Amino acid sequence: MRLHLLCGVFLIGLHSAAIAAHPKVQHSERKLNTLDPVSLQEVAAQELRYRLPSYIVPTHYKLYLETQVHTGNRSYSGSVDIHLDIRQQAKTIYVHQRGLRITSNELYASNPNTNLTFLETLRYTEDAEREFAVFAIRRALAPAPYVLHLDFEGELRVDDDGFYLSSYLDANGTRKYVASTQFQAISARAAFPCLDEPALKATVELGIKHHPSYKAVSNMPIFAEAGDLDGNVVTYFETTPRMSIYLLAFLVSDFLYTENEAAAQRVYARPNAINQTLYALEAGVRIMDALDEHIGLPYRSYMPKVDQVALTQFSAGAMENWGLCKYREEVLLFEPGVTTYRAQTTITTIIAHEYVHQWFGNVITNEWWSYLWLNEGFATLYEFLGADMAYPERQYRDLFNVQVVQRVLITDAAESTRPMTFSRGATFNAILSLFDNVAYSKGGSVLQMFRLLLPDAAWRQMLRTYVQGNEFGTVNTDNFVAALTEAFDGVVSLPEGTDVERFVHSWVNQAGYPVLEVRRSYRGEMILSQDRFYGNKIVNNDFTVWVIPYTMMEQGDAQDALFEWQWMTSKAVRVPSSTPNDEWILVNVNQTGFYRVNYDPSNWYMLIRTLLEDTAAIPMHSRAQLIDDSFHLARSNRLDLEIALELLGYVRHEREYPPWEAANRVLSYFHGRMRGQPDYILYELFVDTLIGDVFVTLDITTVAPDERLLEKYLRQVISSWACRMEIESCLTATRDALEREVFDAEPVHPDVSAVVYCYGLRTAPTVAFQYLFGKLLGSDNRGERQLLINALGCANDTEQLSSYLLAAIGGELQVNFNAEERLSILQSVLSSRQGVDALIEFLTENYTYVVSLLGPNALASLVQSIATSTNTLDEEQMLIALLEQLNSVLPASVSASARTTASINLAWPSTREGLLLRYFLERYNFQPVQSDTVLQPDA
């Protein structure tokens, strides 16, 4: 399952974080805003109370459902035969159910010839807290197979969970209804009574009765369709392989599909979006072919087909149901001339993520949610590798470090982070809380480290061993260790006293990650030491030890050399070194290991000199790593900030996207701190200097047909900063391009539209804002709508911003925005201080409407974002006045947190970090936009 970050709070063009997290992570984070940490601890301690007893094992479900969803009717009914293997004498049967009404039940004994013998109708009680139906048996059952038949009734949910109702507007503006499912993690029980734990795998036989104007689709191909006497149709599906019940999926709709019959793939969508499915079909076929070859266990040896479905309402973002992957429209549909390169990247990588799950998640499944990383880590890694194998010319794998590894290194440096293998309990919220960046991004990053220790052929053999040895079953860390041990045998030399189990457990069972300190004596040796890295402090009494693999490159080494793996297994060690004293060393080449590296100052300065004089002498991913590591080492007081800033200065010579993306995050952080300060002009000059030489080489409003994907990323980062710093040529170019679309019907290329629309609005006439707003109202493409929402939030005209914010809650313009779009509009204006001021004024007058439409969590999130953007005394007074106005609806904890955030921001200029940055800026004579200029200290 893949989660997608909303990018409304990011500046247009600087929002690459939006594709760094799976859509489900954002869904989980939104849900977690309501969690009480104390309650979470309590349910974790009582996990076994919520677990099914081990003596009851389901083997097969025969499920039948009846729905009249075509009318919008939420009521449905059904029956299920649950085939059970009772493994010890029992007088009680537990079945999960949530919000259903069981109308009748019958218990049968099942003999080897599949004959059923009626035993009794059972008395049962409901345990709503634990979501159990508990059936009491008059006479104890002997260990044997049984069948529990249940009739039940339910209502389609309206929260995009379980078996739920959604809708869309057709080409005539008529509302059409859809019944769909989302069962991960424990919501199959909300659709029908079942045993809803991932280890309890069973086969499923499904029939759905529905109106003949609609079609049903599920994991398996249709076996038969039969008309009923009442004029409805029953669709029967082939029996599934043995699988976890959360992977069952079905859809009842009037959707159409495009098809590649030879590849047994289809893409379903609402009829008025069916022309946007062709790229998803092409990418699906390419990616599946690539994964078949890479893994060596063809998908079709497990399942006969795979379908993809684009849904207008799907809070999970994307889901890997076996043979029926589901997605939100904006992460699956592609419209030529409208969809941007970033959106296409998201579509491609999400398809790869869900397709890799067909093996890692479906053929083999995490034994319990504490091992979720064994599902999501593989999917996160291969969303980039699989996409890259399908489209090698796009270099998708070059996005992995800057968009996955470096981002999770930030979040995993918190004291509150968790180990990869970890459980918080067995309730809905406790399990949902595990769908986080640790399971996804850290899981993928650590697996990447394991992968790169092996030759490619050995890694691929490990994948086959791992899957085949556990197919149709469930896995935990021990199963992975066993497969990796076999792969390492005779290939990877582990240090004495260390085996694969210790190596793997040091990464998956411990929270956080290390910083590897490299201190050269310049007398023929180095001292290596490791400590747990915290983002905000140094802890000297932390005795956590990781088994760290590392590579080392010396100045002058060829970048394509095979660097030998070495190992660090203790807190500190002395290592011989033959590197000349006037030459640098580089550890963790291309950031293959999941940790940070710090050096002594002399080595840092030698690296900086080379970056300035011969940038390409250091590998591209190492350049990005050096920027990222040095910045966060400085922020945690492990490195002098001046060293990090001097290293950052080299990027004026950088022409590749990954290092610039790392620099982008650094510049964004300091911009947030410096904006509004008296010497902000010095920071503007600094940024102008860094981007100037690259900016003058770019055409920021046109796209060449043969342009590389990474060149598009680079242009968006640079042009966003150029316009943000109000470089006149940037603002003029974007305004002119926008006006050509408005007045001359010359469309802006989608790959530059984010920057052109956002910054073009800053100086364009009012008619341009009206044009883009009209374009938003007329679009039914969810991806384009989100881009336009973000762009309109860039306006700096007070009246435009006020009208736009009112549109989010209705105002005079009764616009049919959904709730998510309404929140995105409110978030979009946070891209500028003018927008923040407009939002404060809007909330002061309209907070009751925001709460009623979007809920109290949305208001709290907006207030916290305003506090984050508060840098001056005047801005603080505006925040305080807003908090006083919201006193009756805002929790005291939110108000206190906002005040604290603002206080920290105002105090920043007098902190060590603030003073060092200003000292650095004052000492340099910056000369922007001169190709031969190098940063030089003032005399």
UniProtKB/TrEMBL annotation:
Cofactor: Zn(2+)
Record localization: Cell membrane
Record keyword Phosphoprotein present: no
GO CC term, one of those recorded: side of membrane
The UniProt record lists the keyword Membrane: yes
Site (Transition state stabilizer): 440
Domain ERAP1-like C-terminal span(s) in chain numbering: 584-886
GO biological process terms held by the UniProt record: peptide catabolic process; proteolysis
GO molecular function terms attached to this record: alanyl aminopeptidase activity; metalloaminopeptidase activity; peptide binding; zinc ion binding
EC number: 3.4.11.-
Reaction catalyzed: Release of an N-terminal amino acid, Xaa-|-Yaa- from a peptide, amide or arylamide. Xaa is preferably Ala, but may be most amino acids including Pro (slow action). When a terminal hydrophobic residue is followed by a prolyl residue, the two may be released as an intact Xaa-Pro dipeptide
Top-level lineage group: Eukaryota
Gene3D superfamilies associated with the record: 1.25.50.20, 2.60.40.1910, Neutral Protease Domain 2 (1.10.390.10), tricorn interacting facor f3 domain (2.60.40.1730)
Membrane topology listed for this record: Lipid-anchor; GPI-anchor
Positions of the catalytic residues: 354 (proton acceptor)
Keywords in alphabetical order: Aminopeptidase, Cell membrane, Disulfide bond, Glycoprotein, GPI-anchor, Hydrolase, Lipoprotein, Membrane, Metal-binding, Metalloprotease, Protease, Signal, Zinc
Domain Peptidase M1 membrane alanine aminopeptidase: 279-507
Main location: membrane
Free-text comment on the cofactor: Binds 1 zinc ion per subunit.
Binding site for Zn(2+): 353, 357, 376
Domain Aminopeptidase N-like N-terminal: 57-247
InterPro entries per UniProt: Aminopeptidase_N-like_N, Aminopeptidase_N-like_N_sf, ERAP1-like_C_dom, M1_APN-typ, Peptidase_M1, Peptidase_M1_aminopeptidases, Peptidase_M1_dom, Peptidase_M4/M1_CTD_sf
Similarity comment: Belongs to the peptidase M1 family.
UniProt xrefs under PANTHER family: AMINOPEPTIDASE, PROTEASE M1 ZINC METALLOPROTEASE
Designated name of the protein: Aminopeptidase
Species, as recorded: Anopheles arabiensis
Phylogenetic lineage: Eukaryota, Metazoa, Ecdysozoa, Arthropoda, Hexapoda
